[in-house]
Specification:
The structure is a homodimer. Helices cover 33% and strands 30% of the residues of chain A. By secondary structure, chain A is an alpha/beta fold.
Amino acid sequence: MMNESIRVAVVGYGNIGRFAVEALMAAPDMEVAGVVEKPSFADNVKLLDAMGIPLVTSIRELQGVQIALLCTPTRSVPDIAREILSLGINTVDCYDIHGNLADLRLELAEIARANNTVAVVSAGWDPGTDSIIRTMFQFMTPSGLSYTNFGPGMSMGHTVAVRDLPGVEDALSMTMPVGAGVHRRMVYVQLQDGASFEAIKNAIKTDPYFVKDETHVFKVADVNQLIDVGHGVDMERKGVSGSTHNQMLRFSMRINNPALTAQVMVAAARASRKQMPGAYTMIQIPVIDFMHGDPDDIIRQLV
Amino acid sequence: MMNESIRVAVVGYGNIGRFAVEALMAAPDMEVAGVVEKPSFADNVKLLDAMGIPLVTSIRELQGVQIALLCTPTRSVPDIAREILSLGINTVDCYDIHGNLADLRLELAEIARANNTVAVVSAGWDPGTDSIIRTMFQFMTPSGLSYTNFGPGMSMGHTVAVRDLPGVEDALSMTMPVGAGVHRRMVYVQLQDGASFEAIKNAIKTDPYFVKDETHVFKVADVNQLIDVGHGVDMERKGVSGSTHNQMLRFSMRINNPALTAQVMVAAARASRKQMPGAYTMIQIPVIDFMHGDPDDIIRQLV
């Protein structure tokens, strides 16, 4: 590329962070400024070293960072976003607590405007690209019913909730779509020595995270042997355009979950450079802004 | 609604224009300023009269029009858009000639900026909402292959091409998806007295509109008995996020074609009021702008 690359830092080198580094390295217009992590495992250091990517414990140690991808646990996103926006660096997160994201955006918008930066909030696939689809479904058929069916795939939130229970060594919670937005939970637990499976099974079934769904709990020897980060979604709407009923719309995908999340974050990083200072969810940004390349060429090719 | 309604004119009262009137009447924030048509059939006049909608032959006869929906044949869109934008009225069209729409947008953008108006170009479902999906598929998986499979449904363009052939009284061309973006054409012709079916069949099969596709031609007594304005699309992409292959994305719908087109145009009319002067395809407008209502409420509900 003749143009200068956009320098992007990856904050958090877990599941999504690793895929974010890969997606940035594949992007023609970006470069990895560095990875920000707590003092870290030796194999991470070696891996990043081999790729020539600095590993630091604070984003302040990196030079010329224009955008930070926040690949940390979702609950730490608000604090980290506030701090990094205040440094004059754009942020992109995949904050996934649906009930709180609208307020988070309003709060980050003020910080971003005060620091002449841009935050893109909840830029994953749900919330994220699925939100764009849900919005389109709504304006294509203003009356009707939409359903979002997740899975089959691993639910990070439910898995973490089970892992935190006493007596659980490791766990996996799978989301199975039943249809019409109803989900079944299949939970696999690896017990600590002496823990009671019946007690843990009960604790899971009465946990607020699980109590509304049909939940099955299984004891396994090694959760690691079950891990597959594939996921899926089926979004359906049957609705009315004008006064014409029975319009049927559907979006579905089967994907590697952290790989898609990371790729969407990289696209959102690009889009952040094209917005006025402030904070945005993906439905507030034209889809063309997520693309690399000349706008007229993109219109010729894709519209 | 407490807010004043947006006054919208419908230009052209054919297939799409009728559904546009219905969609405007169903919209909480819009009102039909009037319908613009050539001196017209008595039953149209009666129908519009019964709904209290003025029928005029020039948009200049209508008061306080803010937006015009151009529901005319696609080839007349450029001229009509130029004229109406110059009157200080926003335009929305569903211009569907993919090869020309980028240049049309550039031309209308200058006229719109000079007249402090907004044009939304090619705001139907393809080009239109499908274009948004194609763009999303591309930034979710920057490498890979996309296919757009149309049908089963009536192709307006192909139908008109056959109707124009000498000896054809009426015609219908159906598009059948074969997969991977390949289509089969099923053409039904009603002949004029004395016309040769073999000659017409030959003319269709060698017409540039049909020559690339597998085309079957049938003689029927009455084309009207075959008409069904239902249509569909299946858009598929298999691609790569970062360095992760085999990401599978799919969008499909089965819809009443003119009803959806009209509903998208009404949403685009709303969006036109939220853009700076200029001309836009749908991929250049945030999807939230097509919605009626408070942005923060929409974010809370749909993101």
